[in-house]
Amino acid sequence: MIRPHLGPALYTPATRPDLFSLGTIRYPDLGSLIYCTEDAIREEDVPAALHNLEAALPTLVGQPGPQRFIRVRDVSVLKDILGFDLRGVRGLVLPKVHDGNLGAYMALLSDRPELLVMPTLETREALSEHRMSLLRDLMFQEGWPPQILALRIGGNDLMNALGVRRSPGRTLYEGPLERVISMLIGVFKPYGFALSSPVYEVYDDLATLAREVQQDIEYGLSGKTIIHPVQLETVLAGYRVAEADLAEAHAILEPGAPAVFKMNGRMCEPATHTKWAQDIVLRAEQYGTLPPQSSEALGF
Length: 300
What we know:
TIM Barrel, 2 domains, two-stranded antiparallel sheet, 11 helices, globular
């Protein structure tokens, strides 16, 4: 299965007049940019959004910038978008996916393997472990995983399904979604799927965002949706790797590493820590490392 490198992901309404600059040079450190034709725009603005997007897409071909995706509104909008010049985008974000509707999207994409997809788990079905297990099994039965880049978790829609809204100053893991996220990780991640973290909508509370990013990492989520560019650097800083962790990761991945050894005061066991070590090395390659600690690491 494809290993994603999405980084911070910024959604932008497809009605905006600056789709080219947003998708190229505006934010050099942005991991991915998602042009939205769904919740970010009103129903009556969909035709204008599609017209605007169709005009902008050819200008993106061959241009540097973040990974570019389009969030479709529904199957009908996907049909329209598949007629556009999509050479400048990496794939599509599919909204409100469950086992009862993913097939309709994937049927349209069966002859477009170059377009990777990110289904979004954000309906009440995503609150059910049984329904999510059915979705996972369906993906494998139909042979879709090679085209699935990651699964996105739609935090605000899931909160809406529960009839609640997150309080400022509280992370995802300090409210009702903690159980949901833990369940989704258990259902999908052991089977090779990556999951990305929802947005923190209080964009001027960077301290809580920083804490949430660390919790995302501890839970094994990949990528973070941001609501405003001011959140970008906080997410990037959270993804940087401590030099001690990187040293441990390299030691664990050494072909001749002992079965068990200690380093930096921790037990290292390649049989159980290899996946963690691989993720640490990938994060260091993409986001860099944190400044070295002044204290000296313990030997082994």
